[in-house]
Amino acid sequence: AQRVTQPEKLLSVFKGAPVELKCNYSYSGSPELFWYVQYSRQRLQLLLRHISRESIKGFTADLNKGETSFHLKKPFAQEEDSAMYYCALRRYSGGYQKVTFGTGTKLQVIP
Amino acid sequence: GAGVSQSPRYKVAKRGQDVALRCDPISGHVSLFWYQQALGQGPEFLTYFQNEAQLDKSGLPSDRFFAERPEGSVSTLKIQRTQQEDSAVYLCASSLYRGSKGETQYFGPGTRLLVL
Question: Is residue B32 classed as helix, strand or coil in its secondary structure?
Fold first, then answer.
């Protein structure tokens, strides 16, 4: 069975400091990994996905299959980055997608 | 255009009451998902519809939970004889097709259910 682990419930960093939100996964197949973000009083939204190899709002994440990790990084935290971040794994079963989420990490950027 | 909408946004129920939660997906979206998010947890899969067909209901926690999407658009999640452990945020998400690589799920704002 697939599993997504986010070891930190809360991560507090000062504005301008680097950020790393950890995510580890277990899955026997070829994973498709995502990061979702939920700002205060807003809905859950996609931040980035590993297949796009993109940088969104200064965030990047690299899939490391050897370490089964997909950590989210940003070199310089901004106050507007404060939010809940969820790592998610998508697999395909019976011709459709199923997504497993981690428990989330609350990022708090201190001014 | 409009995103995924859900109603009601908040629902307080007495233990034993039945509740019905509504989801309006993005127009034309084939796939619709329901998730349950307990306090301090990530969303957990409940059930999946492809048009009007319910292809997966493996995540429904008990037979008190029932979902339908009779015309392939609006969906309703019904919980019978609610229990306190049903208190959670119920999220609905839709995607355009069946979820091929790169396709995005769009989430609604959720319905927060509190069972007293």
Answer: strand
